[in-house]
Amino acid sequence: AQLVESGGGLVPTGGSLTLSCEASTRIYRANAMGWFRQAPGKEREFVAAKSWSGGNTHYADSVKGRFTISRDNAKNTVYLQMDNLKPEDTGIYYCNVVNPLLRIGRPLFDSWGQGTQVTVSS
To answer: Mean per-residue pLDDT for 9-22?
Structure first.
């Protein structure tokens, strides 16, 4: 697998989780990486992205101030720290290579990983 997400779980409202995504070197190296999520019955949506250098970051308005994206380029891994979780954050979370114009929030790799389920109870 070229994208492997992990770290999801069931948490109460206000709780925290840290997601991890390990990518193959071929698709991780020198690329901006991002997180997306898909709630039941809804389309997949952009959550957060970070440039290869780490100097640029972009978040969806719905998660600003609560989520933090980071990356460890030595480990080909991108993280998503999620704090103050809300029931509307429930969904399957995926990572992918993203357009270097981070504000576009567009994934570039056609193949997705299996995702990791996040469930926030009310």
So the answer is: 98
